[in-house]
Amino acid sequence: MVENNTVSVSKGVFVFKNNFKHTSMLSHGNTSKMFSKNLWHKEFNLLWNSISEDIEVLTCNMFSLMTKDLLSYIRQAYYNSSVCEIPTAALLTGINMPDHDKQFKNLKRQIINDVSPHVALLNSQDCSSVKSLMDNMVYQFLNNSGWDKSSNGNFGNNFKKSQLNLSLLERWYENLYYTKNKSAQPINKNLLIVVLPNFESFNIGVLQKFILIASSYLQKLPFLFVFGIATSISTLYTAFPYHVSSKISIKVFKNESSIHLLKKILENVFLNSFCAFQLGGKIFNLFTDIFLFYDYSVNNFIQNIKYTMMEHFCYGNAMALCSLDRNDVKNTLNIFKSEDFENVRHLKSFRQLVESESYQNQINLLTNDVYLKGVIFENIVILQKYIRRLHIFLRCLYILVSDLPGHPLGKHLYELYATCVSEDVTKTPQYQECLRLLSFQSQNNLCVKLNEIVAILDESINKNSKRTQMKEFYSKIKDYIILLNDLNDAEMDVVDESISPNNSFTNCTDRKSLKESLLLRTKSRMEPLTKYAKLRKDILETISSNFEIHLVQPSSLCFYEIFFFDDISIQNKIIGIHRTAIHTALNDPQVYLQCNCCKLNNSHSIKPKMPDICITYKLHLECGKMINMYDWLQAFLCIIDSSFNAENNTNSKINPQYQARFTRAVAELEHLGFIKSSKRKADHVSRLTWGG
Amino acid sequence: MASKQSALCQTFPCRENQIQQLWNLFGHVDEVFPPTVYIYGGPSTGKTAIVTKFLEILDIKHAKVNLIECYTAKILFESILDQLTGHELDLSTGAPYAKCDNFMDFIDHLQKVSEKFGLSRSVIIMDKAEELRNMESNLLPGFLRLQELTGVSVSVIFLSEILFEKYYFRLNIVEPIKIHFPQYNKDELLEIISLDFDLARELVANNFNQPIEFDRDFFRNYLNVFLSVFYRACRDLSELRHTSRNNFIKYCEPIARNEISMKNSMALWKNISPILKSSLDVLYLRVTTDDSKRPLENLAENIELPFYAKYLLIAAYLASYNSVKDDKRLFMKYHGKKTKSQHDIKRKSKVSEKLNTQMGPGIFTLDRLLAIFYSILQDKVGFNNHLLVQVSSLVELQLLSLASDNTTLDGRKYKCNVNFYCIQSLSKMVGFNIRKYLSDFSHM
């Protein structure tokens, strides 16, 4: 810029556009780059990307049914020409608010792709009045004109806010779809779709007016509304009086419940043998509890799992071994450095491994990296097999126990999973109870269940591999099914006739022997072991013995930490406890500041080096309902000013710097809501919290 | 001219009087238009349709604005000017014909427009004129004296659903000429809806495979039956027309199935009357779902809430419908023995109108809500953010409503919005005995 440009007769301020660019994108790249060289981060990225992709696909499919209905409704809404009410789709979405955003964005994208490029998504916070709602909607329609953006350009930007009204929209729409000859029917008129994701939080009065206005334009502008309703359809009826509700015709669509969605995601993404990262029982229970008790939000659930994964992989390069591919593990081990092996040695289960070995091997394990490499590889392969089988047998077990009366092992697969990874499920009393109940199963039921098990095994067994335990189990079950089918009901006669009834009581000479023989008889009658019962017993025993081998708890295996994460201490990071956090920050700042100067011996002591607000906070804890400002200031000065002496300094001047610091700290406390200025007593503030 | 009038009367039957009045006011070429006309009558009595059609037929230049749409006066002025000048919005700038921020600007521009385009014998129609009461106070008197103020012979027609007397709280009002559009009576309704005959034919042809030929008498028969059920509940023409269309197909169904002959009107009546009765229940609701039979189903069965949110809602209900002084007795384990006072004895014989549960929700603070929540919940729960978020999401769902303003961070006050039956089924779901904790029922 030339200097002369700013020479002016009058005094003025001149604006120079500099070349400043926002660096947020750059810095963001730096943080992810910080870890990108680490092995564990690569592995994490790989795994998380595949998981999030799976989830994306799954959620799309889940909603696709409803979306398909909705889209076909939208397409047909203006099919017959005489529409005098605004067609309205009411989506009952369920209350899990955090999930809605994504769903509605998806919906918008699909509508743009499939039906109409004109979609306006209105948020309640932008629509506090009719005017702002209109501005917002018209702006969105004018600017997101979909695919033919290049031809029209973003001309919406040229308008002032006050010009964005419906007559402008009407003009714009005519320009798009009506040819010069206005009488001719427009070709391929696209609908104007208005989506309100959260109906409940809109101002009802504004919405009523909006509907009336839109309906007055209905002949020229084909509007269609999509309301997302979180509670129930009756909110819609209560919201609108007749003269408004007669302007819309409602069609209700129902979402699938979020519990169902969670179940689907868990079963298809996390609880299968393709996902290397496994959640431990405690963590898993924590997450499902948060879901069921607090928020019903699938999105939060997934974010929680993501956080856990980050925490898991942060441990170090040892976690790079968390892969279900044997070759991957081999490659990773080959590029391991000695500190990486050291990282592995720090794992808890490594110690158990060392202790169980002979002396020579112990030394080898602790010092020889090459030897350790071999051991790790062996164990990882064992773990990989274990995880694969764990999930297969888990599903088998689930089929057996899911419909038992009383659900001793839980109704859902995820409940079963949580038990299996936290303890040996076969040793629990619930499992025994299940076996007992299973031994009453009818032939048909059992047959159906066995068939289902075979179907699962069918999917997961590699046909080409050599004979394994799995294959054996598979063929055994198949044999049993054949046997079961061969059993005819006609053959239900008694098999076990070893205790042939003595058809006479002749040898009973006295009462006692008669009684005994009668008792014996009733006993033998009690258990008429039919062929089926015998077979059933065999089947259950076979299955149960297999469960005992494969459904062991993961902590019994070496290096299980690489695949399983079960550190419950992250609970505090997942569930925010704001009051405790604020109290800790003010009471013991060292926890957050991590400095040595604020270290406290006991929680009541106050150090002058602490931040001012902490000092005032701790002092105010000692006071009652009302706090005298002057006393407070004195106490404050006592602490920060070592030369200060309360007794003889009553009339001396207070250092204004200290007083300013004090005033500021008090203002901060007031801002945080701990104190409030009081009109009842002069120079006093009232305390808003109680307890120390 | 008279032919035009009779054509209008034919498209809008049963409105001969009103059309005649309009004709007298606007129909004569050599007479001056009246400055203002006020047309009023209930919803769907044909006000807007007749006036617009009337002006179109007579080829009178007019601007029509719907006041609902004019959330600011600026839009009102500018759209009137745009329509009178035939100005088309330029899509590159979006500028109106002229900028009008206030009434003075409007008058000024109107005069200019009049010089340019000649505005004598033109009309401004203001639909939904009752909105004028909520708009700026100078608008109504201004438009009533528009001719006087501008010196241009523009006449204004107001269309409204309310009596003109309702505007009297504003001063300086000139009485306009009034035309009343009364409610249609049963015969008139029958007359008008039977205009749907062609449409009904089309409808039947679209819905059934084999064509059913019917004559006007058959359709009128149906309408007679239909109106005998609905006329008492609803006089709104558009609603009746909508419902009659929906039910006509059902009326014809047995004929299409060859079960009942078209002549047998008695059997048809027997067939349709339960259907009409049930659709009387969903009158005005405009539902097109299959389960339209029970549109107002129980909220509690439909809504899926997390476990603690359910308890929070129950606690909110208890806080709303118990008085504060009963809290100690209801929620504390050792509240000491209570001596019976005269008051308590009186309370037992409380009439149902004085029950707390009948008195409407009381306001409670967040602290009280949480205290009750922790007292009714068996297991120990930490006080954390997830829980607080639940409170605000209940507010968002309008199950609770905020009774204090948003500015106070501390000591927010709430009100519970759900009714007893909803809470009862909710507490049944979580296995909680709500009656035990309501002071109205606890002594029973």
UniProtKB/TrEMBL annotation, chain A:
Q: Which GO terms describe its cellular component?
A: DNA replication preinitiation complex; nuclear origin of replication recognition complex; nuclear pre-replicative complex
* Annotated signal sequence range: none
The alphabetized UniProt keywords are: DNA replication, DNA-binding, Nucleus, Phosphoprotein
Q: Its principal location? A: nucleus
Q: Does the keyword Phosphoprotein apply?
A: yes
A molecular function annotated in GO for this UniProt entry is: DNA replication origin binding
Q: Where is the Origin recognition complex subunit 3 N-terminal domain?
A: 5-321
Q: Does the keyword Cell wall biogenesis/degradation apply?
A: no
Q: Name one GO biological process term.
A: DNA replication initiation
The UniProt record lists the Origin recognition complex subunit 3 insertion domain at 337-567
Q: Which residues form the Origin recognition complex subunit 3 winged helix C-terminal domain?
A: 579-690
Localization in the cell? Nucleus
Pfam annotation, one family: WHD_ORC
Oligomeric state and interaction partners are given as: Component of ORC, a complex composed of at least 6 subunits: ORC1, ORC2, ORC3, ORC4, ORC5 and ORC6. ORC is regulated in a cell-cycle dependent manner. It is sequentially assembled at the exit from anaphase of mitosis and disassembled as cells enter S phase.
Protein's job: Component of the origin recognition complex (ORC) that binds origins of replication. DNA-binding is ATP-dependent. The specific DNA sequences that define origins of replication have not been identified yet. ORC is required to assemble the pre-replication complex necessary to initiate DNA replication. Binds histone H3 and H4 trimethylation marks H3K9me3, H3K27me3 and H4K20me3.
- Name the family the entry cites: Belongs to the ORC3 family.
Its protein name is: Origin recognition complex subunit 3
Organism name: Sitophilus oryzae (Rice weevil)
The gene name on file is: LOC115875912
TrEMBL record, chain B:
Organism listed in the record? Sitophilus oryzae
Q: Which residues form the Origin recognition complex subunit 5 C-terminal domain?
A: 305-438
> Which Gene3D superfamilies has this protein been placed in?
P-loop containing nucleotide triphosphate hydrolases
GO biological process entries: DNA replication initiation
Query: ORC5 lid domain spans which residues?
Result: 219-276
**InterPro entries in UniProt:** AAA_16, ORC5, ORC5_C, ORC5_lid, P-loop_NTPase
Report the sequence similarity comment from the record.
Belongs to the ORC5 family.
A single GO cellular-component term from the record reads: nuclear origin of replication recognition complex
Q: Where is the Orc1-like AAA ATPase domain?
A: 11-157
Which top-level group of life is the source organism from? Eukaryota
On whether Lipoprotein is a keyword of this UniProt record, the answer is no
Can you name this protein? Origin recognition complex subunit 5
UniProt-listed Pfam families: AAA_16, ORC5_C, ORC5_lid
- Entry keyword set: ATP-binding, DNA replication, Nucleotide-binding, Nucleus
Q: What taxonomic classification does the UniProt entry list for its organism?
A: Eukaryota, Metazoa, Ecdysozoa, Arthropoda, Hexapoda
GO MF, one term, reads: DNA replication origin binding
Q: Where in the cell is it found?
A: Nucleus
